Amino acid sequence: MFQVNENYLKLPGSYLFSTIAKKVNAYEKANPDKRIIRLGIGDVTQPLVPAIIRAMHEAVDEMGNAESFRGYAPDLGYGFLREKIAQKDYRARGCDISADEIFISDGAKSDCGNIQEIFSQDCRIAVCDPVYPVYVDSNVMAGRCGDYDKVRGLWSNVIYMPCTAENDFVPELPRETPDLIYLCVPNNPTGTALTRQQLKVWVDYANKTGAVILYDAAYEAYIAQEEVPHSIFEIQGARTCAIEFRSFSKNAGFTGVRLGFTVIPKDLKSGDVAVHGLWARRHGTKFNGAPYIVQKAAMAVYSDEGKAQLKGQVAYYMKNAKVIYEGLKKAGYQVYGGVNAPYIWLKTPDGMSSWDFFDWLLEHANVVGTPGSGFGPSGEGYFRLTAFGTYENTAEAMERIRESREGF
Ligand code: MLT
Predict the structure, then answer these.
(1) Tens-of-pLDDT digits for all 408 residues of the chain?
(2) In this structure, what CATH number is given to the domain that contains residue 384?
(3) Ligand 1 mean position to 218 CA, how many Å?
(4) CATH number of the domain that 226 lies in?
(5) Counting beta carbons within 10 angstroms of the beta carbon of residue 8, is it exposed (0 to 12), middle (13 to 18) or buried (19 or more)?
(6) Residues near 173 by beta carbon (within 8 Å), at least 6 away in sequence
(7) 243 and 293, same structural domain?
(8) 188 lines ligand 1 (CB under 6 A)
(9) 293 with 369, same domain?
(10) Domain-ending residue, one of 303, 334, 359
(11) 51 with 263: CB under 8 angstroms?
(12) HSE, side-chain direction, 13 A CA sphere, residue 170
């Protein structure tokens, strides 16, 4: 009889956003007259900008023509896009990254989930708490996390670095030494960020201890403050200790289109072995390249026209972030994030648990958010709202939240 990968059986419940969707669907079914506003999952609502649509149409036409038709894409990505990224996202910011250190993929979520495969089974991971669930769950599936303590919400073999209002959401260096350190800056879910100086502490620590920083920069486009780095490779020493994940989902609205990339410097080595080669090998075996049409569309992200249009889109979402931040403050909530990221993190009122508040808000304001405890035990007592809704819905949600608070 075949056996399943029993590590999967250790995973508690379903994926956070699937659980939320199920709850909301059930509520909707029971209350068909209510208009629910969804500020839960960080999914974009604005259409692709004209420069991207035009590039996509042109690429579609090329695919319909025998002379310009393309089959399989190069598994590591088309040279034109890798070169553009190296130049515009890295060299333009003074980062020493070359085109062949960039691996194009179908999105940062897959890369963040898959990267653990190229490291030893014995590696110990460290994560911020709260944390984007993919980092932990993918390591649980691989059998690296030990056992789950249901009461405390912790895995026995994971090093947790609590990030709460008490430490300004800045993780402290762990007491035990990890091998793989996941950092997400600007942070999902707290919407906070690290400065260059704060990140330098981590780069120095990783180089000293021989750890790798797995740096998720999916929300980089939302950085507003000068002191927050756009890439970990702005920090001296990062080439020997860091891998960076980037996404076109949040800066260009590709959540449904799918495209991202991972940067692995050739200087990142375990003994004589370059990690770069392992990821290239994995890509070659398990991935057949992102679609030509999508990679061509991504080129428009870097054109003058595309850049200007996307700047407008980011500003649109950040206006929502401000509406949420100020609306919640006015309603008497304690609020964090929302300055360098499209997420707002609030303290639940009167010590309510995150899930109780989720239910309460759904019932009294018909607004969906994400319970902080879904991101880890230190997220208990917090709640996340996303700025990716439409402006009209966001403003209405704030009005409803204000009114519901009055009746709290
Ligand atoms: C979120 O809501 O945390 C994000 O949409 C998840 C993701 O990007 O995969």
Answers:
(1) 999 999 999 998 877 889 899 999 999 999 999 999 999 999 999 999 999 999 999 999 999 999 999 999 999 999 999 999 999 999 999 999 999 999 999 999 999 999 999 999 999 999 999 999 999 999 999 999 999 999 999 999 999 999 999 999 999 999 999 999 999 999 999 999 999 999 999 999 999 999 999 999 999 999 999 999 999 999 999 999 999 999 999 999 999 999 999 999 999 999 999 999 999 999 999 999 999 999 999 999 999 999 999 999 999 999 999 999 999 999 999 999 999 999 999 999 999 999 999 999 999 999 999 999 999 999 999 999 999 999 999 999 999 999 998 766
(2) 3.90.1150.10
(3) 10
(4) 3.40.640.10
(5) exposed
(6) 201, 202, 205
(7) yes
(8) yes
(9) no
(10) 303
(11) no
(12) 12
Residues 263 and 371 in one domain: no
Residue nearest to atom 6 of ligand 1 (CA): 42
> Are 361 and 259 within one domain?
no
* Crossing angle for the helix pair 354-364 and 16-30, to the nearest 10 degrees: 30
Centroid of ligand 1 to alpha carbon of 13 (angstroms): 18
Question: 203 lies in a domain?
Answer: yes
DSSP assignment of 218-236: TTGGG--STTS-S-GGGST
**Residue 3 included in any domain:** no
Residue 341 is assigned to a structural domain of this protein: yes
Atom of ligand 1 nearest to the CA of 188: 3
Q: End of a domain among 303, 326, 349?
A: 303
Same domain, 137 and 282: yes
| In-domain check, residue 1 | no
3-state secondary structure of 20: helix
Measured in Å, residue 260 CA sits from the centre of ligand 1 at 14
Question: Is there an atom of ligand 1 within 6 Å of 247 CB?
Answer: no
285 residue type, one letter: T
Are 162 and 378 within 8 A, CB to CB? Answer: yes
> What H or E segment, with its residue span, contains residue 385?
strand 382-386
Together in a domain, 152 and 199: yes
- If asked whether residues 27 and 59 sit together in one domain, one would say no
Structural domain range at position 76: 52-303
Nearest Cα residue to atom 1 of ligand 1? 42
191 and 225 fall within a common domain: yes
**Mutate which of 43, 247, 258, 382 for ligand 1 pocket (most atoms within 8 A of beta carbon):** 43
Distance 406 CA to ligand 1 centre (A): 31
Q: Is 109 in the pocket of ligand 1 (CB under 6 A)?
A: yes
What is the domain count for the chain?
Answer: 2
21 CB less than 6 Å from ligand 1?
A: no
Going from the Cα of 333 to the center of ligand 1, the distance in angstroms, rounded, reads 24
